[in-house]
Amino acid sequence: MSVINIKNLKKIYNDTGVPVNAVNGIDLTINEGEFTAIVGPSGSGKTTFLNMLGGLDKPTVGEIHINGTQVEKLSASKLINFRLNNIGFVFQAYNLIPVLTAKENVEFIMHLQGKPKKEREARTKELLTAVGLEDRMDSRPGKLSGGQQQRVAVARALASRPRFILADEPTANLDSKSTENLLDMMEKMNKEENITFVFSTHDARVVKKARRVITIEDGKIVSDERKN
Amino acid sequence: MINSVSWKNIWRNKLRSIVILVAMTLGLMAGVFYIAFYYGMAEQRINSAIKTESSHIQVHHHGYIENNEIGNFIADAGTMVSKLESVDHVQAVSRRLIVQSMVSSAETGAGVKIMGIDPEKEKQVTNLYTKIIDGAYFEEVSRNPIVIGSKLAEKLKVKVRSKIVLTVQEMGGTLTGGSFRVAGIYKTSNSMYDETTVFVRAEDLANLLKMDVNDAHELAILLDDNEQLDASKEKITGLFPKMDVQSWMDLMPEVAIVKQSMNLTMYITIIIILLAMGFSIVNTMLMSVLERVKELGMLMAIGMNRMKIFAMIVLETVYLSLVGGLLGVILGVLLSKYFGKVGIDLGIWGKGLEAYGYDTIIYPIIHPDYVVITTLLIVATGILSAVYPAYKALKLNPSEALRIDN
Description:
The structure holds two protein chains of two kinds. By secondary structure, chain A is α/β, with parallel strands linked by helices.
């Protein structure tokens, strides 16, 4: 069953008067439970593509269907709500709320969804235990290592029960051990709970773990490789 | 939870928040104290003017106010007093015979206003008897006692029991004189009044002027509530339409201005302080928003809607204003209460203040309604100050904000 369905996606920037085709006609389908890496050199259009996939930017041409909803047609306020309930974000720089503890960071997104306190607390505990941080729940991000912060970010992304997780270079700031731990954890969640992951990455270790690798160059998919 | 995030956000940059909080606290503390001081000073002046000089309402024979002719007297004042005493909110009435006169001591002379009073009745209306600083209030001198102000005593170089002579024009127009002995010397906060007003018994003055002791030039009325001033004045005018009925605000316009300017002064002071506070908050919050563009972008990306972002920033501002503002108001109230008890001695400017009728010891007064108004204005300032920083936050584009390094 497809979670993401993209048709003829294009993004043309015209800021300087000279049109730049950042994304130049992408067609793509990602199915539920896939563990996909999107790779490509800097300037290939990868980030622009991910921004549109995450509903943070609108395409110039084309359609993005996520779980049956045509995302680019949504109004700004509906789009925010759509992101809240359908997409889990993991950022390169973790981007946790520094004044909140690990537990509160995870709980915050469920609060935005209006989930009851009991449910929030139970899910937070479950997720932080799943990412191996059950003993650091009351620590603020400043007291956690980069790897631990990124685990909290993954727990936060999962907390809203999204249709898929969109991770923008999640290992870029991590050392090799933390990278390995994070990837193992995400792979485990993918296999055991069938969670769909889409990464953008430069990291060979991530590419190695991915079961599908999509390469973008000059705003186009130049290869789409599935591993067994 | 947004409340909690907002509260915690204030303390991200502790030093900055503390600096703005201290500035707000000091500003509002000074503002509240200044208002309390001004109110205390103004109310003391008004109360002193009412209790010592004019009482709340005065009734005169028509035409008396214009030319102070002794012939313009109220005949059979006793009956009028009885009627006045039955009017609602009238606490006491004193009738006075008044004449302009020359007073002379062995050394020198001066022009004064002689008030012929019933000492016991006058006690119920004015507090002259509490202002005696030497001698006694009409006691200890059995024949023709006179009570004079300290400033006049100084000028005439007289003491208690000294003899002074009053020269007046009697009813028939003939000049006449009477010898009086100083029974007491009083001192009010108004040195001009002290220098120009003397008190004798009504019957002594009536004898001198060859008038009936039941006549009066002035009926001074004390009310039980100053708020009833206009209503009472209207009632009394209705009762005695042929008389001139005036409130203290008509009689002492310079004091009435003090009362009328009280609210204006308060609002001007508070608005200036709150404007300064508002701009400081805008500056602080703007810095705070610009420092976390990336975080705000992240919040928008993960699905925090604009209303909630707006609410978060407004709450931060409101919390900041409430902490600094309320702390300032509380400290200002405590400071005013403390000095309201012990008083602030402005003795070094005593002569200048007394010349304008002000006490040299000021007791600040806190009015609860003004504290409430100030607090509400603080909250309003907080909300208004939040609008621009919050608007800046709402204008962020999440995909661009996430790329900013801060």
